[in-house]
From TrEMBL, chain A:
GO biological process: cell division
InterPro entries in the cross-refs: G_SEPTIN_dom (IPR030379), P-loop_NTPase (IPR027417), Septin (IPR016491)
UniProt keywords, alphabetically: Cell cycle, Cell division, Centromere, Coiled coil, GTP-binding, Kinetochore, Nucleotide-binding
PROSITE patterns found in the cross-reference section: G_SEPTIN (PS51719)
Residue ranges of every copy of the Septin-type G domain listed in the record: 53-351
Gene Ontology molecular functions: GTP binding
GO cellular component terms given for this protein: cleavage furrow; cytoskeleton; kinetochore; midbody
Protein name as it appears in the record: Septin-7
Organism ancestry: Eukaryota, Metazoa, Chordata, Craniata, Vertebrata
Annotated Pfam families: Septin
UniProt biased composition (Basic and acidic residues): 1-10
UniProtKB/TrEMBL annotation, chain B:
Family designation: Belongs to the TRAFAC class TrmE-Era-EngA-EngB-Septin-like GTPase superfamily. Septin GTPase family.
Top-level division of the source organism's lineage: Eukaryota
Molecular function per GO: GTP binding
Keyword terms: Coiled coil, GTP-binding, Nucleotide-binding
rRNA-binding listed as a keyword: no
Organism: Piaya cayana (Common squirrel cuckoo)
Coiled-coil ranges from the UniProt annotation: 312-390
Protein name: SEP10 protein
Keyword set includes Mitochondrion: no
């Protein structure tokens, strides 16, 4: 055990005999430990507990039909979790209005149970007149917050409040290669205020690497890299010029995940800055395996080659997967709970006061 | 168990197996809070035990026996082990059991525990709240120190524990257990446990529902109450230096499981069940407090027709009520003010009257006195003028007499001669 002596000495305020202090003293004193106590065992206790209760994760995919949303989600979770897969045989028809459909499955890995809910939005952006097509989505997200709020303010409430709030919304940008369209901007602007939005360039295999880089450039802002943060080494083409999708996002004050305001400490900021440099990820989804160099890989087979989904040289799917699942899943949930849900609550409680 | 949802199998590594690690990493960054309440009579070994448990010297001043009432003294410390930061708060009951009349001994403790719940509830009910960074002061565990009499629990013990068992996790401990022999100890322990059961006192049971810890927890549940010895002295035994108490007849080693249950307590309290203690405090004791308090404040989950009432509407109704109450009070105060002003006015008028009367009275008196004096003056003046007259008459007479006096005098002298 390491000995930490941060001594802030503080005497509790002298209390006259008649008073009874009902609050704790304000400043903590740092103490030296003379030997092993076992405090760090609490980490294992936590792990055991969370593995027993399991996790909930709710993801929403938004984008025009045909952008590969369902395939992408299946690829992310390596199983048929999307709506299409669970309702085979249904004719695919573009609905007249945006509908939201959620499908829930339970998946398990390494003893960790996860209840995964995927919400699809068929009909988004598919109409001739797409005005306000984001309203049903906003309504759905707010409805989940409302559900949670109602449970939370009950007098006799459940030990574990069921969490249906959307933790992450993956927005699929069509690979037109030019600029963000008004629909994209409108949607992201409105939704990034109430939910974590992760934009991705869909079907990126229709763009060459240079076109990909240019598109990103147009959508990103000039990187405000933190001083001293080494840039992730990657192909030079991808990072050639100042990214412009971010510029677009910045101009319209759209704050996508990971939001800068919620970086907690310098380590966080450094890690998230690196991620922010890559956003939006150019992804390709595939749910079929092929044989490449003697290995079985997930990929799309075309006449001119096999696009390996998990190969960082081909597409940025691994980055998306790492962000959403391997490193920031808990963070997505925390920001949803501590920031978005709290602002919904404030709005709602203030509403009823007027 | 899966709530009726389909289970899917994964065709490859997804990566969410790292979720518990992500969660743990976040919690570690945030740090942990743990709040211990020690109840026991002065001199039962509370501070020494805490020092031994956490292997540090908490610098707690020794208290006297002469305090008029029970006070609670809380101190917060920051401990770090590896990369885990623990904000430990130790709350001590000072003067417990010292008074001649112990009727009010446990009330300050109950009030303190309620106050911590209340503070958390207030934060939770706020509109703009920051639960994420809230320093949780709710008591997670109460170590109740039983005196090592060897007989049974005292009435004070029973009363105190009964009033606390629905508010906090109680772990009963026999302090200074080196004064009891092994055979006496077993009898003492079973007596204590049966008394607790007979009085319906619910102490904290180490959880047995998870396979990883159920076995050891079940065993430990059977060892309650833990008979502990604490020590701030280090004694060299063989080639090791251990915490121990040195007596002429031997050395009691704190960490020797044959000598006392200290190791068991530390194991259970810190290494195995700290997280469960924290969770029980919130999931059970705090929720109970919250429910009672909200019901007290008049909130209900279902309205008169058994339809769910939203807390919003209840809030609104309460706010309205409160607002009306405020208005009424304001009106009342205004009336009072007007009333007081009137009364004061009347008082002042009366006083004015009185002064006026006095003034007139004095004036009269002044006049009378003046007149009296004038009269006297007149009298005196008359006397003076009479006197002057007399004087002038006498002088005249004297001058006449002096002309004829010499013959008379000669004649008198001749006569005398």
């Amino acid at each position: 055990s390491s000995l930490e002596s941060a001594e802030h000495s503080m005497e509790p305020p002298a209390v006259p005999e008649e008073e009874m202090p009902l609050t704790t003293a304000s400043d903590p004193e740092g103490c030296q430990l003379f030997g092993y106590v076992g405090i760090e065992a609490v980490l294992d206790q936590m792990k055991i507990k969370t593995m027993k209760t399991g996790f909930e994760f709710n993801i929403m995919v938004v984008g025009q039909s045909g952008l590969g949303k369902s395939t992408m989600v299946n690829t992310l979770f390596k199983s048929k979790v999307s709506r299409k897969a669970s309702q085979p045989g249904q004719e695919e028809r573009i609905p007249k209005t945006v509908q939201l459909q959620s499908v829930t499955h339970v998946i398990e890995e390494k003893g960790v149970k996860m209840k995964l809910t995927v919400t699809d939005t068929p009909g988004f952006g598919d109409q001739i007149n797409n005005e306000n097509c984001w309203d049903p989505i906003i309504k759905y997200i707010n409805e989940q917050y409302e559900k949670y709020l109602r449970e939370e303010i009950l007098i006799t409430r459940k030990r574990k409040i069921p969490d249906t709030r959307v933790h992450g919304c993956v927005y699929f940008i069509p690979p037109t290669g030019h600029w963000l369209r008004p629909l994209d901007l409108e949607f992201m602007r409105r939704l990034s205020k109430i939910v974590n939005v992760v934009p991705v360039i869909a079907k990126a295999d229709t763009l060459t690497l240079e076109e990909r880089a240019e598109f990103k450039q147009r959508v990103r802002a000039s990187p405000r890299g933190a001083p001293g943060v080494p840039r992730v080494p990657s192909q030079p083409q991808l990072k050639a010029r100042t990214p412009q999708i971010q510029e677009d996002l910045k101009t319209h004050a759209i704050s996508v995940y990971p939001q800068e305001d919620f970086d907690q400490d310098p380590d966080d900021r450094a890690l998230n800055d690196r991620i922010r440099e890559e956003i939006p990820f150019a992804v390709v989804g595939a749910d079929q395996e092929h044989q490449v160099n003697g290995k079985r890989v997930l990929g799309r087979k075309t006449k001119w080659g096999i696009i390996e989904v998990e190969n960082p040289a081909h597409c940025e799917f691994p980055l998306l997967r790492d962000l959403l699942i391997r490193s920031h899943l808990q963070d997505l949930k925390d920001i949803t709970h501590n920031v978005h849900y709290e602002s919904y609550r404030v709005r709602r409680l203030n509403e009823s006061n007027q | 168990q899966n709530d009726g949802y389909r289970t899917l199998s994964l065709s490859g590594l997804v990566g969410f197996g790292s979720l518990p690690d992500q969660l743990v990493k976040k919690s570690t960054k945030q740090g942990f809070c743990f709040n211990i309440l020690c109840i026991g009579e002065t001199g039962s070994g509370k501070s020494t035990l805490i020092n031994s448990l956490f292997n540090t010297d908490f610098d707690d001043p020794v208290s006297m026996h002469f305090l008029p009432s029970v006070r609670l003294r809380a101190q917060t410390y920051e401990l770090q082990e590896s990369n885990v930061l623990l904000k430990l708060t130790i709350v001590n009951t000072v003067g417990f059991g010292d008074q001649i009349n112990k009727e009010d001994s446990y009330q300050p403790i109950v009030d303190y525990i309620d106050a911590q719940f209340e503070a958390y509830l207030q934060e939770e009910l706020k509109i703009k709240r920051s639960l994420f960074s809230y320093h949780d002061t709710c008591i997670h565990v109460c170590l109740y120190f039983i005196s090592p009499t060897g007989h049974s629990l005292k009435t004070l013990d029973l009363l105190t524990m009964k009033s606390l068992d629905s508010k906090v996790n109680i772990i009963p401990i026999i302090g200074k257990a080196d004064s009891i022999s092994k055979t006496e100890l077993q009898k003492f322990k079973s007596k204590i446990m049966s008394e607790l059961a007979n009085n319906g006192i619910q102490i904290y049971q180490f959880p047995t529902d998870d396979e990883t810890v159920s076995k050891i927890n079940t065993v430990m549940n059977g060892h309650l109450p833990f008979a502990v010895v604490g020590s701030t002295e280090l004694v060299k035994i063989g080639n090791k230096t251990v915490r121990a108490r040195q007596y002429p007849w031997g050395i009691v080693q704190v960490e020797n499981e044959n000598h006392c249950d200290f190791v068991k307590l530390r194991e259970m309290l810190i290494c195995t069940n700290m997280e469960d203690l924290r969770e029980q405090t919130h999931a059970r004791h705090y929720e109970l407090y919250r429910r009672c308090r909200l019901e007290e404040m008049g909130f209900r989950d279902t309205g008169p027709e058994n339809k769910p009432v939203s807390l919003q509407e209840a809030y609104e109704a309460k706010r309205h009520e409160f607002y009306l109450e405020m208005q009424r009070k304001e009106e009342e105060m205004r009336q009072q003010f007007v009333q007081r002003v009137k009364e004061k006015e009347i008082m002042l008028k009366e006083a004015e009257q009185q002064i006026q009367t006095k003034f007139e009275h004095r004036m009269l008196m002044h006049q009378e006195v003046k007149m009296k004096l004038e009269r006297k003056k007149k009298v005196l003046e008359d006397e003076i003028s009479m006197f002057i007259e007399k004087k002038s008459n006498a002088e005249l007479f004297q001058s006449q007499a002096s002309v004829s006096t010499p013959i008379l005098s000669l004649k008198r002298d001749k006569d005398r001669k």
